[in-house]
Specification:
The chain is about 40% helix and about 10% strand. With about 375 residues, the chain is α+β, with helices and mostly antiparallel strands. It has a domain of about 150 residues: 60s Ribosomal Protein L30, Chain: A (2-Layer Sandwich), CATH 3.30.1330. It has a 5-stranded mixed beta sheet. The longest helix has about 55 residues. It is flat and about 135 Å long.
Length: about 375
């Protein structure tokens, strides 16, 4: 209160002391260094995975974590011969302890008399009289006659052994023939399955290559790709106003050249042989002279062969180049249609493999 005053105001003095900023620690530097180290280790790991082969990586893994081939688990415990090998996913009892049975050539048994424990009474074999010292090798005729004189139901033991071996060999050959027939059928089925898959993949690649090219996209409807009994057939057909070859001639259009170049890029990767055939419609050839649709179709097929080889197809893969004129129309109901004027490129199916036959064992 002020002196001498009754209603004096209260004066409050407020002082604010501002302190300095605290010292920041270096923990963020440690975290950043750990992050950079981890990224460097990750980069080195990715580089090593890309620079090494599968065998090298498997060797490194086996070095740091050796596999116990005598245990059933990865920890090294288990019974013997129940674990897994380092390079196999199945158990050792399945891949190392299995017994394989493989048919081999029929052994040739020697004519050896086997002594039996049960005593037998030898029957006297009647022999014709002859000079002393005459044996089977010296007189085989007398030996055969002596065998013929055996009582009914008894025969020479050597002859019985030969007959048994012959029957066993014939039975073995019959089983081998049956197994060979089954094996050949399985090989043919697997070969056909793989060939169909390769043809389907090639057809998809050809369609995709044509669809992705703006200059050839509108020609996709003039290209027919299908699997036929002979193989994969690719046909380039004419359309009204868009011919593949000049009318009445064998000169290909620019779009036909580009289309054949695209097709060659795909079929070159397959090993199949190729047959090329040219076709025309039923309209008589107007060129005059001795030329006909036979000549025109053959010339177009030969031009197609030349364009394929120029695009990179090996000449040795071409099996045939034929001209069929109007004998095989695409639209038999309308023989004069433009679609009947076409060129077909067929990737022929390969002959299926067969099981090699082992050499026959001659009968004794």
């Amino acid at each position: 209160m002020a002196k001498g005053g009754k209603n004096g105001a209260t004066i409050v003095i407020k002082r604010i002391e501002e302190g300095g900023h605290g010292h920041h620690g270096g923990a963020w530097k440690v975290a950043y260094a750990d992050f950079v180290t981890a990224m460097m280790a990750f980069f080195l790991l990715m580089w090593l995975l890309n620079a090494t082969t599968e065998e090298q990586r498997r060797g490194l893994a086996d070095y740091f974590a050796p596999t116990n081939v005598m245990g059933q688990g990865q920890t090294g415990t288990g019974q013997p011969f129940g674990g897994r090998t380092p390079n196999e996913s199945a158990q050792m009892t399945q891949n190392a302890g299995a017994i394989r049975l493989q048919r081999g050539p029929l052994p040739v048994l020697e004519d050896v008399e086997v002594e039996e424990d049960v005593p037998t009474v030898a029957r006297p074999v009647p022999m014709r009289e002859g000079p002393e010292g005459e044996d089977e090798e010296a007189n085989p005729r007398r030996t055969r006659q002596a065998r013929a004189d055996l009582p009914p139901g008894d025969s020479d033991p050597q002859e019985q052994a030969r007959q048994a071996r012959l029957e066993a060999q014939l039975q073995a050959e019959g089983q081998e023939a049956e197994a060979r027939a089954l094996s050949d059928a399985a090989l043919r089925a697997e070969h056909e399955r793989r060939e169909r898959a390769e043809f389907e993949k090639a057809a998809e690649e050809i369609r995709a290559a044509i669809a992705m090219d703006p200059a050839l996209a509108e020609l996709a409807k003039q290209m027919l790709v299908e699997q036929v009994p002979e193989g994969l057939r690719i046909q380039l057909v004419d359309n009204e106003g868009l011919p593949m070859f000049a009318l009445g001639g064998a000169a290909p259009s620019d779009r036909a050249r580009q289309l054949l170049a695209r097709i060659t890029q795909v079929i070159t990767r397959l090993p199949n042989r190729i047959a090329i055939a040219g076709h025309t419609d039923a309209t008589p050839f107007r060129g005059g002279g001795d030329r006909s649709n036979w000549d025109l179709s053959a010339e177009r097929a030969n031009v197609t062969r030349r364009l394929l080889t120029e695009a990179g197809l090996p000449e040795a893969r071409i099996r045939s180049v034929t001209g069929n004129a109007a004998r095989d129309p695409l639209l038999p109901e309308t023989p004069n249609a433009a679609a009947n004027r076409r060129v077909s490129i067929t990737l022929l199916r390969d002959d299926p493999p067969t099981t090699p036959r082992p050499p026959r064992t001659p009968a004794p």
